[in-house]
Amino acid sequence: MATETPAETPRTAAPVKRKAAAKAAPARKAAKAATTEVAKPLSGEDVMRIIQLGKGSNSVELKLSIPMGGHRATVRSIGLDPVEAQPRQAFYFDTPDLALNRAGVVVRARRIQGGRADTVVKLRPVEPDTIDPELRRSAAFKVEVDVMPGGYVCSASYKGLCTGREVQDVADGTLALSKILSKEQRAFFRQHAPSGVTLDQLVVLGPTFLLKAKHQPKNFDRPLTIEVWFYPDDTRILEVSTKCLPEETFNVGHAFRTYLADRGIALGAKQEPKTKTAIDFFGAMLRQVAG
User: pLDDT confidence of 286, banded at 50, 70, 90?
Assistant: First the structure.
């Protein structure tokens, strides 16, 4: 494992004026309107690939994002009490030209109600068979397959803990990002970041405000996670998900789809990944401000 390096301070993005956000909103909404609303079904080859990836993974997360017009109905139909939701803030870190995003590397810090926070350095997609067995010995490291209508991805991530105050200080530029990442996370970053990209080159993307709730439905035997992400252009993403062991994927997936369909929730809508949407949105705002 690599040795520790000197602290590296991320550069906080220049304050984004409301005018810049207003310019970003129409373009993004127009792009959404022009996009087909139907997800391409998974093929037989996709299914076999998911099985293969699952064999080398710790878990599988089944996800469904709901079109904006169905958010209120979805919350009511699954019986979620809105006061169960916990407020959070997600901060992403990348170069101004999103070099990490293009390389499949994600660096995130998340503030959680009550003063807690966590961090993650993630790589996707990955081939589970190529991962160093030494990494798998860490309880902070995991390999997971995300499956949603029309797509799937296998990722490897190193998680860490810190305080909400520390995350805010990093976002404000008064604390080095490396100070809230573990030695293992920093080594994982150096191994997979594009050549020449270091932590001190990263800028802050966000924050994105979100609400997250754990919910146990009456007619489904597994807990659900419901997240609503709010973006500065007044759009939002609602995602319903559940987790299972790889060998349970298709039994749990069938039960999950049946449960949602019985409540009138659309299953075939085009999916909007939360992380990609946040990075794309704030990356575009950075470019506008710089311009």
Answer: confident
Q: How far apart are CA 264 and CA 197, in angstroms?
A: 46
**Whole-model pTM over 0.70:** yes
Between helix 274-290 and helix 18-34 the angle, nearest 10°, is 130
Verify cis geometry, omega within 30 degrees of 0, for the bond prior to 125. yes
Please spell the DSSP secondary structure of 171-222, one letter per residue.
Answer: HHTSS-GGGGS-HHHHHHHHHHSPTT--GGG-EEEEEEEEEEEEE--SS-SS
Within 13 A of 75's CA, how many CA atoms are on the CB side? Answer: 17
109 strand-pairing partners: 91, 119
* pLDDT at position 162 over 80: yes
Domains belonging to the chain, first-starting first, are: 18-290 (2.40.320.10)
In angstroms, the first-to-last Cα distance of the chain is: 41
Give yes or no for a contact between 20 and 288, defined as CB atoms under 8 angstroms apart: yes
Contact partners, residue 158, CB within 8 Å, separation at least 6: 120, 121, 122, 135, 138, 140, 141, 182, 184, 185, 188
